[in-house]
Amino acid sequence: MRVPDPSCVVWDEIAAFWLVLWLVTPVGLGGQLAAFALFRFFDAAKPDPVRWADQLFHDVDLAADPAAWRKAGFGIMFDDVVAAACALLVIAGWRFFQ
What we know:
By secondary structure, the protein is mainly alpha-helical. The chain has helices at residues 11-24, 29-45, 48-55, 68-97. The chain has one domain (11-97). 70% of the residues lie in helices and 0% in strands.
């Protein structure tokens, strides 16, 4: 595909959301839907920590940097893991104050 972050590849979102589901269990369907909505919000809206993670590896020079593809691959996953962590922090806070 020769692009650092192809939009047709979504395994990064799938893996990050499975991490969220694994860490919030046991929850029912409503809890899973809330976790999904929170994760998608952080992944799509990209508030500050997620935006920072998303932009961290966007400036790699694919022609000059021999490690550019590894950096781009890490960057693809990193912003989704940060979005998952943000969703988990909100869920943890909600559980704590409930």
